[in-house]
């Protein structure tokens, strides 16, 4: 019997993240299976939609003169994985926005409501306005949350570092 194909209505998003990679915008979410409005799967850590994982292996220089990759960097043969490489798979477009909106809800204990995050290279920021999360331009978002915050932090650091400096007597 084939496995049932789940629709966006069959999931509840614990949190949704908007990010960029290679100058393209993406969405991903930590989701749990939703059986009804008040019945969410509580066991396990949940699964990610919009992200695929690939194992990363140690890279070595190929020293076999008879191979096609001689002198090039290749994954070490028969090595164990040293980490994971994440690849975003769902672009930030109208179809995916509509699907992700269907996964948002406020459920009772222990989860609460869906949280929204902007993921920048510098830091992750919680979205305060949900409607703005879906509509704001990424460059405007970056200017508002990253550039504005950095200026404030620099000013605060300089403000409290005005101690008088004097030469030491020996």
**What structural class is derived from the secondary structure elements?**
alpha+beta
Mean pLDDT: 83
| Rg estimate, integer Å | 23 Å
Order of helices and strands: EEEEEEEEHEEEEHH
Quote the beta fraction. Answer: 25-35%
Total helix count? 3
* Assembly state of the chains shown: single chain
Number of strands: 12
Low-confidence stretches: 150-154
End-to-end C-alpha gap? 87 Å
The major beta sheet can be summarized as: 6 strands, mixed
Number of discrete domains? 2
Can you walk through the features of this model?
It is a single chain. By secondary structure, this protein is an alpha+beta fold. It folds into two domains: 8-50 and 89-134, no CATH class; 54-84, no CATH class. It has helices spanning 94-102, 130-135, 138-159; strands at residues 11-21, 24-36, 39-40, 47-49, 51-56, 59-61, 73-75, 83-88, 106-107, 112-113, 115-119, 124-126. Strands 1, 2, 3, 4, 11 and 12 form a six-stranded mixed β-sheet that branches. It has a two-stranded antiparallel sheet with strand order 5-8. A two-stranded antiparallel ribbon has the order 6-7. The N and C termini lie far apart (87 Å). The model is unreliable at 150-154 (pLDDT under 50).
Brief rundown of the structure:
The protein is an alpha+beta fold. The protein is 22% helix and 35% strand.
Keywords:
alpha+beta; 2 domains; single chain; 35% strand; 22% helix; two-stranded antiparallel sheet; 170 residues; extended; 3 helices; six-stranded mixed sheet
What is the strand and helix layout of this fold?
Layout (H helix, E strand, L loop, with lengths): L10 E11 L2 E13 L2 E2 L6 E3 L1 E6 L2 E3 L11 E3 L7 E6 L5 H9 L3 E2 L4 E2 L1 E5 L4 E3 L3 H6 L2 H22 L11
Parallel strand pairs: 1-11
Antiparallel strand pairs: 1-2, 2-3, 2-4, 5-8, 6-7, 9-10, 11-12
